[in-house]
Structures are given as C-alpha cells and as structure tokens.
Amino acid sequence: KKKQYFAAIAKNQPTSVRELLTASKDVTKAKQRGDYKFPKALELEALKFLGGYIGSLTGLQLAILMGEVAIARDIVDSSFQEDLDEKFGEIVKVLLHRGADRTIKNSKGFSPTDMAIDPEMQDLFTTSPTDLHSP
C-alpha cells in the first residue's frame, strides 16, 4: 500500500490517494525516499534551511512539494478527521491551536517565524495561542 500511496501522489491521482487513505490511514505515517524531480530553487532552499537535500518524505510533504494542494488537503483531512479551510494559514492555525511548538528550531537554528515570508503567516506564529480561535 505504501508504494501505491506514494506513486498516486507523485502521479497526481487524488482518487487513488483517497481510496488508499480510506483503506488505511496508517499510510499517512509512512515515509519514502524517491527519485522525485523538484525545481532546483526548491532543492537549494532545502539545503539552506534544512541543512540537507530533500530525503525521505511523508505523503503530505511530497504532496506539498509537488504542489498537489487537493491531495495535501485530503491527507490532512484524513489525519485530523475534520474539515479544514483551503488556506494554508488555516492549517497552521489548527496545528498551533493543538499545541504545535512555534519556537522549535531546525538543525540550522531557524524557527517557523524565521522561515515565514508572508506577514500574515508571521503574525500567526507570534500571536498568543489563546488568541487563536479554534477553526
């Protein structure tokens, strides 16, 4: 199932991804290294901010990096068992509301606020958790 799941994401087959998620939500926890082709700029950003090239990915990470928004949304919906707004900021609000650590730093010392380019996204990371309204 894991190979089918990642293949369906890479080939932009949302119906297949949904069927696999329905059959087993455990696939959302799986990681796989693949021979995926990402834009050079994305590879350089990964090296700069993560300290390495893109390696093993979850299905959600792969969908996001490949720009498959509908598939990413299906994976998140399946994982959290609730409907989420289309905007990425709404997903961030849900994660922060559920206690995601906004101060955590990656191996290069960058926090989410450091990496957020959009001013609205930066505001989400600096807003008090009690000020976030539950989606």
Summarize the topology.
Blueprint: H1 2-10, H2 14-23, E1 31-32, H3 40-50, E2 57-58, H4 59-65, H5 69-80, H6 88-97, H7 112-115, H8 119-126
Antiparallel strand pairs: 1-2
Helix pairs in contact: 1-2, 2-5, 4-5, 6-8
Order of strands side by side in the largest beta sheet?
Answer: 1-2
Number of strands: 2
Average pLDDT works out at 79
What is the end-to-end distance? 32 Å
Strand content range: under 5%
Figure out the total of helices: 8
What this model shows, in words?
It is a single chain. This protein starts with a helix and ends in a 9-residue tail after the last helix. Helix 4 (59-65) packs antiparallel against helix 5 (69-80). It is built from 8 helices and 2 strands. It has 135 residues and is an all-alpha fold. 53% of the residues lie in helices and 3% in strands. It is globular and about 40 Å long. The chain has a two-stranded antiparallel sheet.
